[in-house]
């Protein structure tokens, strides 16, 4: 397995992978995201096995104002159904953590939707050292 940075040629495979999380995006939307996620503060990494995308992780890095540090946020993690159970998600997260650390981050955060609890996502993240951040995340559509 290789972990590489996503680029425009991966658009179709990424589109199919995101459908497994019930996210529907057009090719143009994916290409737009890939163009944004192509600098030191935004990355989309792919796990590739035999030229096939087995998984994806996207992260963004923010410079914090009050605390003098950087924080990485895992925007999304998905492993293709046919590759699950092979620790690909774990490897993608570890790779992302190392990337974040090399970019000066001291914190890596993520959120896991309530609808993912039933498939063990929360337990998966806890097993990898993530814990309840003791914060309430509030949201408002604008």
UniProtKB/TrEMBL annotation:
Alphabetized SUPFAM superfamilies for the sequence: Acyl-CoA N-acyltransferases (Nat) (SSF55729)
Any GO molecular function: acyltransferase activity, transferring groups other than amino-acyl groups
Gene3D superfamilies membership: 3.40.630.30
Transferase recorded as keyword: yes
Domain N-acetyltransferase: 1-142
Keywords: Acyltransferase, Transferase
InterPro entries found in the cross-reference section: Acyl_CoA_acyltransferase, GNAT_dom, YpeA/RimI_acetyltransf
A UniProt-annotated Pfam family: Acetyltransf_1
Annotated protein name in UniProt: N-acetyltransferase
């Amino acid at each position: 397995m290789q972990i590489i940075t996503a680029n425009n040629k991966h658009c179709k495979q990424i589109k199919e992978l995101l459908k497994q999380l019930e996210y529907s995006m057009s090719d143009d939307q994916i290409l737009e995201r890939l163009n944004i996620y192509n600098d030191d503060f935004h990355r989309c990494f792919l796990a590739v096995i035999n030229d096939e995308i087995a998984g994806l992780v996207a992260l963004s890095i923010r410079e914090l104002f009050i605390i003098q540090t950087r924080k990485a946020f895992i925007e999304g993690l998905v492993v293709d159904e046919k590759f699950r159970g092979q620790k690909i998600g774990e490897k993608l997260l570890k790779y992302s953590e190392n990337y974040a650390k090399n970019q000066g981050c001291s914190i890596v955060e993520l959120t896991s939707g309530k609808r993912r609890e039933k498939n063990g996502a929360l337990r998966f993240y806890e097993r990898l050292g993530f814990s309840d951040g003791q914060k309430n995340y509030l949201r408002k559509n604008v």
